[in-house]
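From: lab user (bench 3)
To: helpdesk
Subject: output format question, protein + nickel (II) ion

Hello, I'm new to running complex predictions and I'm not sure whether the block I got back is the full result or only part of it. Here's what I submitted:
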Amino acid sequence: MIRVVLRMGDPRLLQPSRPIADFGTPELAALLQDLRDTMAVENGAGLAAPQIGVPLQVVIFGVEQNPRYPDAEPVPYTELVNPVLTPLSMAMEEGWEGCLSVPGLRGVVPRYQEVRYEGFDPLGQPIRRDVSGFHARVIQHECDHLMGILYPMRMRDLSRFGFTDILFPGVEGEE
Ligand code: NI
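Helpdesk reply: Thanks, we reran it on our side. This is the complete output you should expect:
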């Protein structure tokens, strides 16, 4: 079911999410279906459960060829539960981000270049990956949602924050 995506200003986006206690349940399967349906219709790179008003540690993400991120390498579609992020070095890099909860805007956000993420798939099978670049950026953005952090809260230079259609004329898509 397509759900309404909460927008910045809604206090539910600022609350930390709880871990999932039971895997393989009908409730978790229904939540993932809603996340998939909603991310697909919004053409997003990722979506976290709190963005649809569910304060649980569940994120989905994946990028094939997205006109919003023309230079980004593909990110495999992933459903991740109870993620834990560990930076693999202290090196940071800046890059443009958008968010379905901050529609119509983009901003430059510093992120770790390389991170390890660990967690579980919806059936409880462990997932562990070491990633870099855009993949690392996406997972850091999604895990921030589980801590109640939106990307503008990570920005250091608000002069590089603006409306997508002004910043990137001709780029299709809402974000
Ligand atoms: Ni987001």
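A quick orientation on your result: The chain has one domain: 11-167. Let us know if anything else is unclear.
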